[in-house]
Amino acid sequence: MLKVMAELHEGSCGSHSGGRALAIRIKKQGYFWPTIIADCETYSAKCDKCQRHAPIIHQPAELMFSISAPYPFMRWSMDIMGPMVPSGDNELRFVLVLTDYFTKWIEAEAYSQITKEQVEKFIWQNIICRHGIPYEIVTDNGS
């Protein structure tokens, strides 16, 4: 039965089909045993070529929806990138980035370390003084 599965799955007639399809092909060739479906599913799951070349299906955990803003500079997203590998001592290792949802305008600045005071100063100088008080600043809370 292993030879039959191997030939129909990956042999000259093989199409690297899934477990149930392989079981149906085997039945059409006139072979049957009580655990044919389970055996075929196990065989297909262990096939190296199938695992390497099969399409990966990513199903979202919840429904996705777009976040938009009705006018420019109303809603900003904030993220901190880093730590990046510095080229010397006391180099800039972090980048604070704010992006406007409506225009995709970016305000960014590099820092050697990120503190609460630096974030507040950056938002005051680069967002509030330049574009006005935003309705919302969206963060991912460090995730």
UniProtKB/TrEMBL annotation:
Q: Which Gene3D superfamilies match?
A: 1.10.340.70, Ribonuclease H-like superfamily/Ribonuclease H (3.30.420.10)
Q: Which residues form the Integrase catalytic domain?
A: 68-143
Upper lineage: Eukaryota, Viridiplantae, Streptophyta, Embryophyta, Tracheophyta
Q: Which organism is it from?
A: Cardamine amara subsp. amara
From what superkingdom does this record's organism come?
A: Eukaryota
Q: What is this protein called?
A: Integrase catalytic domain-containing protein
| Transmembrane spans | none
